[in-house]
Amino acid sequence: MQKRMIFHYPFPLPEAGTSGSKVRLTHMIGAFGDLGYEVEMVSGYVDQRKSSIRRLIEQEKKGKEFDFVYSESSTLPTLMSKRNIVDPFLDFEFFGWCRRKSIPIGLFYRDIHWKFNQYKISTPWYRRIVALPFYWYDGLQHLQLVNFLFLPSIELGNPQDLDAELYSHVSLGDLVFYAKNETSCPS
């Protein structure tokens, strides 16, 4: 049986670039292909992602199975992205569908700096007061919907900084892989 996965990114994929996020996206898509996965894309602006999600739902109804979802978040809270205003809950609804279909979701959480002192020091209070509730909302949604949370560095993946009762972790080089302890979390 063909291995299939869904690659989710809430923006159009960058054409090319040298920044870590642009390079990582390209390399991750290639790596999944190299591992033998057929990669189904859910990326682009809202209308493009909505169309891709509809196509995947139809494929699943016809019997196509998906092994997992790999997603990369935006650096902004989901509901604050200007491009999501049309349908701000689309990505969470997609994750909910995946969860109901027992398709595990791994999310590379690119920017968790808001949870640490450096955010407070480097961001003016008037921006923090607007953004923080939205970051917390994202976190609550991820807690309920995401099976694996990938963080960009060991410093960001300190179990004392996240709820250690809810997550167990494994470090591989500079990546920290967090897995929800499903018995502790609401489904």
Textual characterization of the structure:
The structure is a single chain. 37% of the residues lie in helices and 21% in strands. It is an alpha/beta fold. It has a single domain (3-180), classed as Rossmann fold. A seven-stranded mixed beta sheet has the order 2-1-3-4-5-7-6, with helices on both faces.
Helix content estimate: 25-40%
Strand order of the biggest β-sheet: 2-1-3-4-5-7-6
Query: What is the count of distinct domains?
Result: 1
Count of DSSP helices?
Answer: 5
Q: Roughly how many Å apart are the termini?
A: 29 Å
**CATH first level:** Alpha Beta
DSSP strand content = 15-25%
Task: Report the major sheet.
Answer: 7 strands, mixed
> What Rg is obtained from the alpha carbons, in whole angstroms?
17 Å
Structural class: alpha/beta
Subunit organisation of the chains: single chain
CATH topology: Rossmann fold
Second-tier CATH architecture: 3-Layer(aba) Sandwich
Secondary structure tally: strands: 7
* Uncertain segments: 170-175, 183-187
Silhouette: globular
Mean pLDDT: 81
Order of helices and strands: EHEHEHEHHEEE
